Amino acid sequence: RYKSMVTPRRAAVAIACCWIVSFLVGLTPMFGWNNLNKMRRTQELNASHTQFVIKCQFETVISMEYMVYFNFFVWVLPPLVLMLLIYLEVFNLIRKQLNKKVSSSSNDPQKYYGKELKIAKSLALVLFLFALSWLPLHILNCITLFCPSCETPPILTYTAIFLTHGNSAMNPIVYAFKIKKFRTAFLQIWNQYFCCKTNKNTGTTTAELGN
């Protein structure tokens, strides 16, 4: 049912919705959920008449309540748990099909479901890398919010931040090495735009990727 359900229009709408939600969630601090009022109250309590200056550091400007309750507990943790449950169900169904060796549209059910299992493992690896990259920083944010007296070593904070940025570079590599069609397209793009080589089979492979 995949080809009938996932039409180009529905895919475009889903991608657009993801970007819109990402912008709204990411820009929420600019809409007022930040530490500006808190810093102003602190200055007033100290009866300071000096010029109001904001120290441009992440934890100074961004509210930890926003990062933990809204960002982590709403937009990261629930989708992560849901995706984990979905992948577990997918693996369970594929395992059952492989054990039953049920008939399918493919001439070789064992080969068909084995291929599906391989693709599922590749996508599960992407999910694992996402969790590995983002959970450390969110855990540190939880420590900062729920245990203000706890001191986090700077090296842990910098490592967690580095992992979140590195996650964006991991996915193309995983796709390229684990999924053949992505790897073929990646090599063609590399040869065409970086090595100035042309490939006569570009059109054919592009059509295959579209299918």
UniProtKB/TrEMBL annotation:
Pfam families found in the cross-reference section: 7tm_1
Gene3D superfamilies recorded: Rhodopsin 7-helix transmembrane proteins
Location, primary (coarse class): membrane
Topology class, membrane: Multi-pass membrane protein
Domain annotation G-protein coupled receptors family 1 profile: ranges: 1-175
Transmembrane segments: 12-33, 72-94, 123-146
Keywords: Cell membrane, Disulfide bond, G-protein coupled receptor, Glycoprotein, Lipoprotein, Membrane, Palmitate, Receptor, Transducer, Transmembrane, Transmembrane helix
Family designation: Belongs to the G-protein coupled receptor 1 family.
Function field: Receptor for adenosine. The activity of this receptor is mediated by G proteins which inhibit adenylyl cyclase.
Protein name from the UniProt record: Adenosine receptor A1
Organism lineage string: Eukaryota, Metazoa, Chordata, Craniata, Vertebrata
